[in-house]
Amino acid sequence: MERCCVGIDVSKDRLDVHVLPQAIAFHVPRDGAGIEEIAMRLSSVSPSHVGIEATGGYETIVAAGLASAGLPVLVVNPAQVRHFAKAMGERSKTDPIDAAVIARFVAATLPEIRPLPDDSTRLLADLVARRRQIVEMITAERQRLQRCSVPRVQKSLARLIGALERELASLETDIDDTMRGSPVWREAEDLLTAVPGVGPVTVRTLIAELPELGRLGKGQIAALAGLAPHTRQSGKWKGKSFISGGRASVRTSLFMAAQSAKRHNPVLREFFERLIAKGKPKMVATIAVARKLLTILNAMLRDKSPWTEEMSHAQPG
Question: What is the pLDDT of residues 181-203, one digit of tens each?
């Protein structure tokens, strides 16, 4: 019997739905009543996968509502869907067409259904993301201040930097309170920050934005973080491996942690220096350190084991 797969295109005001193999298409408003109607209509066809394209946050309530109705919901990567559409030769783009493409993408790839983040994890993720935005704004304003020579503009920049720093302190208090509210998160933070080079910001980013940490194998977790190398080879030609995709904020946080670890973590410093001695470029070696660090953190959280230098050896799974 052919699987039933559903694609849902999310826009600001409406939801377009496409059901395969029945080729059923309909749309509803993007509100509570619309989500309830989708859940009711899909319950009669028992889909194996309900794919919703990530759309700048509009998809969050839709995914949560359908998942609470017991439907097998997954949020799909819009870049992967676009590549899939190009491969099919689908150049037209409307909301109904996008829903059909998502359904066909899900039917072709059958992605693994994973539990969606709960309310607490979503809250922490939002706070961590907002902290990241404030830090970026502070950095940008400080750079403008360094280049500025007009006193009145300097005062304006200084006032804004002060306001942003106060907001940053408030956000960090909120994040601390949220972390303290979960014994599991506190235990994970205490465990992982014991690794030299890994600080609270990295750990909280991982907890909020990579909740699969400790639950997947090293290859899967590296792929989610965008740290799994992709090989390019055809016949006798072999190109350079590269990384791409994954969760950009997680990858950036791990890269910054790797920069610290290769200086302050004796084991990872030795690993980095060994790669450099073999002729690897510094950027490639640093990415390898980030990937190895993620593997170590994943194994520590999986096994609830404290940091030791022996953790640097390749972890199974």
Answer: 888 899 999 999 999 999 999 99
Phi, psi of 37 (to 5 degrees): -65, -40
Q: Rounded to whole angstroms, how far apart are CA atoms 201 and 175?
A: 10
Domain stop point among 87, 109, 131: 109
Quote the domain boundaries for residue 293. Answer: 193-312
Distance in angstroms (rounded) separating the CA atoms of residues 220 and 55: 24
Which pLDDT score, from 0 to 100, does residue 54 have? 84
Span 274-292, pLDDT tens digits: 999 999 999 999 999 999 9
pLDDT, residue 241, reads 54
Q: What span, in angstroms and rounded, lies between the C-alpha atoms of 202 and 199? A: 6
Classify the phi-psi angles of 214: left when phi > 0, otherwise alpha if psi is within -120 to 50, otherwise beta.
left
Q: In what order do the strands lie in the sheet with 49-53?
A: 24-29, 14-20, 5-10, 49-53, 73-76
Residue 299: per-residue pLDDT:
93
Q: Which amino acid is at 218?
A: K
Q: Which residues pair with 25 in a beta bridge?
A: 18
- Quick one: 198 and 166 in the same domain? no
At 46, the amino acid letter reads S
CA separation for the pair 295, 210 (Å, rounded)? 13
- Cα(198)–Cα(189) distance, rounded to whole angstroms? 10
Beta strand 237-238 pairing with 233-234: antiparallel
| CATH number, residue 59 | 3.30.420.40
Same domain, 19 and 78: yes
Within 13 A of 175's CA, how many CA atoms are on the CB side? 24
CA-angle at 296, arms to 293 and 299, nearest 5°: 150
In this prediction, the residues of the chain whose per-residue pLDDT falls under 50 are 234, 236-237, 239, 314, 316-317
Cβ burial, residue 81 (10 Å; 0-12/13-18/19+): buried
